[in-house]
Amino acid sequence: MKAIILDGYVDEPACFGVPPYLSPYPRYTAGALIEAGFEEKDISYFTIDTVRASGKSLSEQFKSADVFIIISGMTVPGKYLRGTPITAEEIRALFRLSCGIKILGGPIRLGYSNEGGIAASNLSFLPDDVMVAQKDIESFVYDYFSNNSENTVHAAHTIPAPPAHRYRTAADIAGWSKKGAFITKQHPDFPNLICELETYRGCGRKKHCSFCTEAFYGRPDFRDEEDIIVETELLYNIGVRHFRIGRQPDLFAYKGIDDGGVILKPNPEAIEKLYSGIRRVTPDLKTLHMDNGNPITLAEYPEESREILETIVKYHTPGDVIAMGIESADPDVIAANGLKATPEQVLEAVRLVNEIGAKRGANGMPEILPGINFVYGLLGETKKTYQLNYEFLKKIYDEGLMVRRINLRQVMVFPNTPLSANKISDFKNERLFRSHKEQIRKEIDLPMLRRVVPVGTVLKDVFAEIHENGTDNSKSLTFGRQFGTYPLLVAVPGNIELNRFYDILVTNHGFRSITGVPYPVNVNTAPLAILKELPGLNKSMAEELILKRPYSDEEDLVKRFGQGRLISKFVCFE
Known about the structure:
This protein is an alpha/beta fold.
């Protein structure tokens, strides 16, 4: 039997799957197929962007496949640099094209939406012959094909009834994650992609946030450290060099201890075993970052959290970010929605992370910083909420602290969450949200970014991803990012070669991005668009610099060009 796995991308609070990220879902699903009796040679993996670029050339392959699986789902949709998640129209059209067994799975089972502020809709757009995995796609696929032989599946062109829907366990994916690792090489970005490594899922809190879907998974189901280490080693041996320890709602709670409190007590020994083990089997690793950390965990257990932070900084790569969900600084909203932490607790967590992680690392970024998440459209929200959120961020800035990024998103309401059970008739004002967002971008984001990466900082290993052409060639830009969690967007003047790494000199700042030029700049060959970006130069100075070329060395540059000493540390001569 021939099977196709189509990655329509996922984006969840604890899991990235839009390029350059590869979520665990396709790997687990491929592994489940293998364990159910398929062979590697009969499993093909595609991304939705590959399908779009291919036109109709893949149509016959999709049509003739015995099994056609689409994985998708956006529970926290964002803005994407390259990959674009699959649309409802594309899902419908691709399933109609297929003549085989059709299965849809991933977070899309909770409902479909492509932007925040809009309630997720049901999947009524699907053709009637599509089976939807109501819980985990990987366990559904395994149960379906392990219980139905090839002959049964194809007898008289009938399709057996689907199995009972269930969540997979950590024991299940201990095997599937390894057996499915092979499809990583079929990703069009391989080896320049980031593989998500799951430690656990499920929330350890006894009361859950009103909007969150993590509660659906129940109590935490922790993977064993050695299991994760072995999976990482397999991916590394295939050729992967970039990893993110994601999928969990709170890394600080990994293998945490229930001591009767409202949250799990951190287990520093487990984090040490995990991180040291990963680094042991990946000697030339390029990226090792994390995702979520619950601020209340850091505030309630500061000593254990400090030990974990020190372990992370010891073994990770710089530029790391701990995504922290404050959601709201308004006490009324916090109470109405069962949110995790008070503003005071979040502030304590931000201080602790800065204390351990603010030092600048080898790649030009601070070792590890917090990322702050706000959600708008929650119960109890009023105009006062916006002011309290702004004042909280202003307090962080005024204390001289750093955060890597501030995420302001409108809530997406999913069925069966506490929020969906309430008729949301509270304050909702799109115009206020947009003006509030603009104020934070101008008054907090911009000066904060100047603090995090000042002009003159050199960011190493920025991967050039796309070109954007302006009205004329002089306004063309190349956009790139370092690999990692919430990487900083870098704009380089002109069209530099894509799909390669550059060291970039920071020359200017936007609200959420920086402008930079390849470092060092060849003063004898660089175009005007690059030279005028050098710190201290303007267009007329750069034109003068070009007119006096070539320069033999630094002494010659300083002697013949008035700003030569100013730019000498940024340039080379051949």
